[in-house]
Design a protein that fits this description.
Blueprint (H helix, E strand, L loop, with lengths): L13 H14 L18 H11 L13 E4 L5 E5 L14 H11 L11 H12 L10 H16 L14 H17 L2 H11 L9 H9 L8 H10 L12 H17 L5 H9 L20 H13 L7 H10 L3 E4 L3 H10 L14 E7 L6 E6 L34 E2 L5 H10 L7 E3 L43 E3 H6 L3 H8 L4 H10 L25 E2 L1 H12 L3 E2 L5 E5 L5 E2 L7 E2 L3 H14 L15 E6 L5 E7 L4 E7 L12 E2 L2 E2 L9 H12 L13 H4 L15 H21 L1
Parallel strand pairs: 1-3
Antiparallel strand pairs: 1-2, 3-11, 4-5, 4-16, 6-9, 7-8, 10-13, 11-12, 14-15, 15-16, 17-18
């Protein structure tokens, strides 16, 4: 019986061939592994110890998913932004041009489909060159390079830079380990699987990893569409990416490309005609700059920032912020959002008419945000600044449309909201109807003094505030924007004319706690802290002295548009991992929070705002309702309005220093002494909504019930019939007795 061979010496296997080679190397006094390293003197027992060392090395390769780019998409599937640490998009082999497959094999490993992971012939050639003084020669196969790329790029993605080994930094142990893993990989995977993996991992310079990213960057095409000269050029880059970078060193790249083409011809991969044509071709770069992050978003950079913060703040996407950031930049997520590009582009274009980014010397801020009623979807989120602005442009790190923090105190990148002015008045009116009052009930809007001792009804707190000029230390009397309205009038007139005195007259008959609850029912909260409801601690808050984000206000008005159903605003439709598996996304939590008849009643009056009220100058061509708002000194001006299918908040004001007036500032090429909600915010809202409103539901709103509109008509009783003489005497006696008794009782 033949003696059992130690498997390491089985020369019929690739490993056996390697050991035979190592034995030759030992005789020469060196151990060579992979690419030739400087000679190392070995002791006499080196062969045995090397065999033991080789046996002890791991022979299993763990293939992690490569660090893949994540994409944020608009609702129509168009790309808004890409995020990556290593710019890579993984593609299957059948989506990679055969030209690049052949070119890589020709120049990097001609015997790729013949050897078992390492090329002993190449190793021997490297040894011979070393012995003859020819210097080091490359002998790494595609499989070895694949192993090396996987290990190094995985370490880099995990932040383990000290473990990365490249070129001369690799020691003998590193190379031997790489060789053994390459042998194992060759047994584990098919040649096509190895080639696919290699082409998806290999580095092509300029932060492009994998052939799909390289094809897009250098030639603005997909890997499957690479031509022969393009493929040969890219195949040449991988050997020394910086030196053969066609952007920086085009001559080097061209020379290398032609050498690759020569190899392809020698190996019968192309014919002479193809070779001649390809070598004559221009380098033909068509650079498509890489986009990484929201600052390079194709559109809606602040919406992109908002979506990014939603991902980074949500534990569903990782235990720690670092885990979530790594998932976003390496996890290959596909994040589909609610954004409608048509609406977004139309909203963004409006600012050119008022506060253009390149001609806004007074830094006037402007924003538009649209929410879809009954779904909560954020369809547009635009503002007139840039995250990274060119010289002369207005830039801001803040998203004017959103809260500063989320419910857990994590940053959303928002400005924290702005004083909302008279746009808050519809919510007092909503409670007026909710508590049983009618639209056309008469209120005394002539009352202008509310002294310190005035008792505002607040069942869950205390409401104070002074409007009494008889007190020299108090605020002036309650003022309306125009004279002539200090009189009795209907609650309807008070709202559509935006009369402060009418709002106070209705509130004086209500529970302030219930007004605040109505605001909360529609989603209103403070922009600095969403856990804090809109405060009614001071009666001035009924006139809009609280800071609320435009997104919140658009969502609140959408509650009226939908017939009383409130939905939390949402930006995410789906988030899928690299396997296509759905990850959790926040829901809109749509609920009926306002009575349908109350919502219909509010809407019926807000429609009149655009006909005869404070917004008569900004009507729409569709059935619409709106409310304008202007704070003291015009620091912040608003129009918030809706059709049945869209609710939009339009804001113009001072974003950084919120107390600065916008009167006299350069807006729309002019300087006006007084700016109100309808002046610019309203015109932007009008232009935008007229342009895109027809894309969504523009049917008529439901009318409120008749019993909610007018007070009941008091019908006087019919006169009694004349009694007969004989009967009348008796009735009169009865009447007299009754009257006498009544008088006694009084």
């Amino acid at each position: 019986m033949a003696a059992k061979k130690h498997p390491i010496f089985d020369t019929a296997t690739t490993l056996g061939k390697l050991v035979a080679f190592l034995g030759i190397s030992t005789i020469c006094g060196v151990l060579v592994a992979g690419l030739m390293v400087p000679a190392v003197a070995l002791a006499g027992g080196t062969a045995t110890s090397s065999i033991t060392f080789f046996d002890d090395l791991p022979d299993e390769m763990k293939f992690e998913t490569p660090a893949l780019s994540s994409k944020i998409l608009a609702a129509d599937g168009s790309v808004i932004a890409t995020f990556y640490d290593q710019n890579r998009t993984e593609v299957p082999l059948d989506s990679i041009s055969p030209f690049i497959q052949d070119a890589i094999v020709a120049v990097e490993d001609a015997r790729f489909r013949e050897h078992g992971g390492i090329d002993t012939r190449g190793l021997m050639r490297a040894v011979a060159a070393m012995v003859q003084g020819g210097g080091r020669q490359g002998a790494s196969t595609i499989t070895q390079q694949y192993v090396s790329n996987v290990m190094n790029q995985t370490h880099a993605a995990n932040g383990e830079l000290e473990k990365v080994r490249q070129g001369d930094s690799k020691g003998i142990g590193d190379k031997v380990r790489e060789i053994k893993l390459a042998i194992a990989v060759d047994k584990q995977l098919s040649k096509d699987e190895i080639l696919q993996g290699y082409l998806n991992w290999v580095f092509f310079a300029n932060n492009n990893y994998g052939i799909e990213a390289a094809s897009s960057f250098y030639f603005s095409t997909h890997a499957k569409d690479l031509t022969l000269p393009q493929a040969a050029l890219l195949a040449g880059v991988v050997n020394r990416p910086s030196y053969y970078d066609p952007v920086v060193n085009p001559d080097n790249a061209l020379s290398r490309r032609n050498m690759v083409l020569d190899r392809m011809l020698d190996q019968g991969m192309i014919d002479a005609t193809q070779h001649a044509d390809a070598t004559k071709a221009e380098i033909g770069l068509k650079i498509q700059e890489n986009r990484n992050g929201c600052t390079t978003a194709t559109r809606a950079e602040y919406f992109c920032q908002y979506v990014t913060n939603l991902i980074l703040n949500d534990p569903n996407y990782g235990k720690t912020p670092e885990d979530r950031d790594r998932l976003l930049k390496q996890g290959g997520l596909t994040i589909t959002t609610t954004l409608d590009p048509v609406l977004q582009d139309a909203a963004q274009a409006q600012f050119a008419n008022f506060t253009p980014a390149n001609d806004n010397p007074d830094d006037v801020g402007q924003a538009l945000v649209t929410v879809q009623p009954l779904s909560g979807k954020i369809l547009a989120m635009a503002q007139n600044t840039k995250l990274i602005a060119r010289e002369g442009q207005f830039n801001s790190d803040y998203n004017f449309n959103v809260d500063r923090f989320d419910i857990n105190g994590n940053s959303l990148g928002g400005a924290g909201g702005f004083d909302v002015g008279s746009t808050i008045k519809p919510f007092t009116f909503a409670e007026w109807l909710n508590s049983g009052h009618r639209i056309n009930d008469v209120v005394n809007a002539g009352v202008r003094r509310y002294p310190a001792g005035f008792q505002w009804n607040n069942s869950c707190g205390v409401t104070g505030g002074i409007y009494d000029s008889t007190n020299p230390e108090a605020a002036p009397d309650l003022q309306n924007a125009e004279e002539g309205w200090y009189r009795s009038l209907t609650a309807r007139e008070g709202l559509y004319n935006s009369l402060n005195t009418a709002t106070f007259a209705t509130a004086a008959q209500l529970d302030m706690c219930n007004i605040q609850k109505m605001m909360t029912a529609t989603g209103i909260h403070l922009g600095e802290d969403p856990k804090q409801p809109y405060s009614v601690e001071y009666v001035s808050s009924l006139l809009g002295s609280g800071e609320v984000a435009p997104l919140t206000m658009a969502s609140a008005f959408a509650t009226f548009a939908s017939g009383g159903t409130h939905c939390d605003p949402i930006a995410l439709v789906s988030v899928k991992n690299i396997k296509g598996e759905a990850m959790p996304v926040p829901g809109a939590n749509c609920k009926q929070t306002v009575k349908p008849e109350v919502a219909a009643g509010v809407t019926s009056v807000l429609q009149e705002v655009l006909v005869r009220g404070s917004g008569y100058q900004i009507p729409l061509q569709y059935a619409a309702a709106a409310k304008t708002g202007t704070t003291n000194n015009s620091e912040h001006t608003w129009t918030i309005g809706y059709t049945k299918g869209l609710a939009t908040a339009s804001w113009l004001g001072s974003p950084e220093n919120k107390s600065v007036s916008n009167n006299g500032k350069l807006i729309a090429g002019q300087r006006l002494d007084y700016v109100d909600g309808a002046t610019y915010a309203g015109k932007a809202w009008q232009g935008y909504m007229n342009q895109i409103g027809g894309n969504y539901d523009v049917s008529f709103f439901d009318a409120p019930p008749a019993s909610m509109v007018n007070p009941p008509v008091v019908i006087p009783p019919k006169p009694t019939e004349t009694a007969k003489p004989s009967e009348k005497k008796d009735d009169e006696k009865k009447d007299d007795s009754v009257k006498t008794d009544d008088k006694k009782k009084d």
